[in-house]
Amino acid sequence: xxSSKDKMLSGEAYIAMGRELxxxxxxxxxxxxxxxxxxxxxIKARNQILKELLGKTESRFYIEPPFRCDxxxxxxxxxxxxxxxxxxxxxGARVSIGNNVLIGPNVSIFTATHPIHPExxxxxxxxxxxxxxxxxxxxxxxxxxxxxxxIGQHTVIGSGSVVTKDIPANVVAAGNxxxxxxxxxxxxxxxxxxxxxxxxxx
Length: 202
Known about the structure:
This protein has 202 residues and is of the alpha/beta class.
């Protein structure tokens, strides 16, 4: 017989009231309490907590406190990862984040969802869908990423977006619901803002 944790990880409906999942969430909360309350200068100590909490990290990453998640062990982050203040990840399913990903402040990433009908929802049933964010993605502040979403490499998600469906690679997308605005082109490499070329170095 599958445990609630096994069902959660396989995407089946489950009830999260059991001791196993409660203890896992409590463990994550204890680690996050330490992470979020360390002195700003204790960067190495904070990163060590994240290495122990998260499912996978690379050598170079930085998450600004405060940070919240459900379990931690379902979160994988790539190299040169940066997340600004108030990142929240509900990681009942795997959240896979690639290399060189930038996340703005107040971003929420949700793998957990619930039945539409109120009776099973009130009974405590829920399920999860994994989320993938590929390499070189930039997610603007106050964005919400919903369960099951896949965001392709190099894509930019505008601030305040609600991402309900997959977004392909190499596009700028924004809005509620988030939609493709345009493709990213080689011309974009020349400018840091509209019509403003990069200054010469030095």
